[in-house]
Please model this.
Amino acid sequence: MAEFSLDASFIPALHKPPALLPIAKYHDSLLYVIETYPVTIVIGQTGSGKTTQIPQYLEKAGWCADGKIIGITQPRRVAATTVALRVADELGCEVGKEVGYSIRFEDVTSSATRIKFLTDGLLIREALVDPLLSRYSVIMVDEAHERSISTDVLLGLLKKVRRKRPELRIIVSSATLQAEDFLKFFASKSEEQNSLAKGEDEEVGKIISLEGRTYPIDILYLESPAENYVESAIATVFQIHTQEGEGDILVFLTGREEIDNAVQAVAERSVQGGEQFSNLQPLPLYAGLSSEEQMYIFDKPAEGKRKAIFSTNIAEASVTIDGIVYVVDCGFVKLRAYNPRTGIETLTAAPISKASASQRAGRAGRTKPGKCFRLYTERSYEDSLPEANPPEIQRSNLAPMILQLKALGIDNVVRFDYLSPPPSELMSKALELLYSLGALDAYAKLTKPLGFRMAELAVEPMMAKTLLSAKSFNCLSETLTIAAMTSLGGSVWFYHDGEQKAMESSRRRFAAEEGDHLTLLNAYTAFVTKGGKEARFCHENHLNYKSMTRAVSIRAQLKRYLERFNIEVDESLATHRSEIDAKSKAEQIRRCLTAGYFAHAARMQPDGTFRNVEGGTVMHAHPSSLLFNRKADWVIFQEVTETGDKTFICDITKIEKAWLLEAAPEFYKVSSGRAEQA
Ligand code: CDP
Ligand code: MG
Model:
């Protein structure tokens, strides 16, 4: 034909051909080692193709024959979803078909699914139903270097499963060089095996190191410490934009608030700053973003523009973004920390480790030589950054983990084969809490039915106890709603720039003087009744429509769990309740919350701060709480965060002191005078 048009005949490649990824060279040796040994440890820099390519290699090599599937676990939900989308895309299928993902409250898989991405926590839950994980031919524990609690527990379980299923293939993949530790772990005999002392030592596995091709990276330090690293990060971004050559910028900050502020500040300043700043495109990246928002990150910037991505630790290894040439590293990360004395678990910004610092810097040199701007001095890098952060299992509330191990039939939780054993005081604290919640009996055995049900419900132990107590307080329908609304992981209130006041007055329309839980309940009830579950209602009331629909779905899933336990949910919404009825219903709900959250009780002091019952920690109501700047006496709270040197509590409800003693007489007896101290 005459009118041969280039445009019509050529479609630009969507992705870099997988054959060009560093992992391609290792295709044959990977498959050989996986075929030959039960355990394969794969070490390779972020972006080498571990997560997206290995499952595809395995599938093509026949590891999904006879209906078996390949499972790849991720410590983070965002990673599981974005990576599944990417692999589905590469294979040209719809996500949920051959490639799917499964995260808590969201299962996007089908009977056609052969490659399944899921969080490591969710795979542990699957083991409750299928202890040998028999549907899987291969399980790849990805991002193992993060050492999340669930990753550690999963590795211990897989070591056990391997003995009963020698044909199962285990792949551990990590971005840093701890390969030996993982291999030694699988090679060593557990205590149980030692006592059986059988046969020869077999060779359990091999390590494969993927050689990355990275370009040199210049590391630059501050001359003197930054006073405010967010400000300093923004200034650095503008400096790069005006003084450095082409390439996108990746900025590491610690959390959503900081990131939203920075993105907004950059957007505003680039409007005011005129021409030279206007080509900067600031984008956020953190766990709570919707899938569409996440996708912007991967898009090429518009012609002549430069992307500046402000991210949490997610971008350190879990999510790979191409085109980054400049990295700005604030030097901090939000870490979970649990204080066994006060019984409080917080997320606190702490200095990153040297290993993290080099991971972060490494994000810069993927396509050409890069630069990393560290917002700290070289001296503090040398002197005060630890080599590695302790694994999560050594600094978290272990109650959820112990509950799951017990439900998996691992009664001796102290002797379980841990990659790193948790400190004994964290263990005993968690056992004490589970005992006072009624999940364990005096012999530390899981109680029937309460303990087993608590382990099965997909919410943390205190909320599980609350839900399972609700029937007896005659407020099950309401409590289900509260559980769903507090499982959203992020605020349901939504506002654009400059609308905060309007949002707050919307929120006041739903406000209950008893606190946040009842306020959330009111908002949800209005959404499903008056609001007809419609977006318009959310828009008018500054509610996040996506979150609200998610709450409806989570609620339905939790309800199904309860129905499986033969607990009936009476949904006759009492719309014609009198004032007195409403008050007494509210009291039932508050009593019910106390039954689950008695260990999270605090009392307001004359100066308006709170002291928690156990350790006398000084805490403040978070500005997002209804009880911010309000008077109260005793309260229970659900969440704790730390900002700077202040401890904030969120999701707070007023209670009566007497209810605490009713809810947990033993707990308040053990540390006698707990309530008196506060
Ligand atoms: O797991 P690993 O860090 O070794 O690499 P990967 O996640 O498999 O990424 C391989 C390649 O796919 C990289 O070049 C990524 O930039 C790209 N990728 C992407 O463009 N979008 C995603 N959602 C995931 C990966
Ligand atoms: Mg990966």
Observations:
- Residues 16, 21, 44, 46-53, 82-83, 86, 298, 320, 322 surround cytidine-5'-diphosphate (ligand 1) (CB under 6 Å).
